[in-house]
């Protein structure tokens, strides 16, 4: 497993280097296709207040954007720990301050030997989610996220809402967030707050080609009565 992680990390880093050296200067972003990639490592994989058992977690991603459309893939691979690995695909469309997305989350492991093409309602490990993000922009530093599992391995079809407050601090950024499950049982057995915390992002390296950020998060899940403190680095183009 660790050898596979090293290979995947190496491939992502090569991709980042190719992006930084071979992409031409942006001429007209409304007519050209732009590419981006990232290679992140986090001490734990915590998502919407849930612990996915990665200690630590390698999280690469790639995306291509054209006009206001983005098509991308993202993964979470455990370096250690009992959790499932994950490979996700998404497509999104920006309409002014609104971003509309559809995500396909797929998890698998030796104890969860799922096949990617299995979309059978009774046995699939895919989760299909519709997502809307409303951004307040520079004038109003708030974002509102809404998501709905409309198909897949969550028969309760859970809804998740998250309010985000974003505050720049010189070159750094502080995001304070509150996540609530009003329907379903994916994040908790009943409705309630499942993801409350803050993430501090500090750029460590800025250049014309690559960026390196340090991320520190303190997260609480009131329903599960758990707290997490995670640290990670993000290398991205």
Sequence-ordered SSE layout with sheet pairings:
Elements: H1 2-22, E1 33-42, E2 46-47, E3 50-51, E4 57-66, E5 69-78, E6 85-95, E7 98-108, E8 126-135, E9 142-152, E10 159-169, E11 172-183, E12 192-206, E13 211-221, E14 226-236
Antiparallel strand pairs: 1-4, 1-14, 2-3, 4-5, 5-6, 6-7, 7-8, 8-9, 9-10, 10-11, 11-12, 12-13, 13-14
Model description:
The protein has 237 residues and is mainly beta. It has a domain at 66-72 and 83-236: Porin (Beta Barrel). Helices cover 9% and strands 58% of the residues. It has one helix at residues 2-22; strands at 33-42, 46-47, 50-51, 57-66, 69-78, 85-95, 98-108, 126-135, 142-152, 159-169, 172-183, 192-206, 211-221, 226-236. The strands form two sheets. It has a twelve-stranded antiparallel beta barrel with strand order 1-4-5-6-7-8-9-10-11-12-13-14. It has a two-stranded antiparallel ribbon with strand order 2-3. β4 and β5 (69-78) form a beta hairpin.
């Amino acid at each position: 497993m660790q050898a596979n992680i090293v290979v995947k990390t190496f491939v992502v880093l090569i991709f980042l280097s190719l992006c930084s050296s071979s992409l031409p200067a942006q001429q007209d972003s409304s007519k050209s296709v732009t590419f981006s990639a990232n290679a992140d490592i986090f001490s734990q994989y915590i998502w919407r207040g849930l612990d996915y058992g990665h200690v630590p977690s390698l999280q690469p991603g790639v995306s291509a954007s054209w006009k206001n459309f983005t098509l991308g893939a993202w993964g979470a691979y455990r370096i250690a720990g009992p959790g499932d690995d994950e490979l996700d695909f998404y497509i999104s469309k920006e309409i002014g301050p609104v971003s509309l997305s559809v995500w396909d989350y797929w998890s698998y492991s030796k104890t969860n030997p799922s096949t990617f093409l299995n979309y059978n309602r009774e046995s699939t490990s895919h989760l299909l989610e519709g997502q809307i993000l409303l951004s307040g922009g520079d004038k109003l530093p708030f974002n509102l996220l809404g998501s709905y599992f409309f198909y897949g391995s969550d028969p309760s079809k859970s809804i998740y809402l998250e309010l985000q407050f974003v505050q720049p601090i010189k070159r750094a950024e502080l995001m304070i967030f509150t996540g609530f499950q009003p329907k379903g049982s994916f994040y908790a057995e009943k409705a309630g707050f499942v993801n409350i915390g803050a993430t501090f992002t500090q750029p460590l390296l800025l250049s014309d080609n690559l960026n390196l950020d340090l991320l520190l998060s303190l997260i609480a899940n009131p329903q599960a009565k758990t707290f997490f403190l995670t640290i990670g680095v993000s290398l991205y183009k």
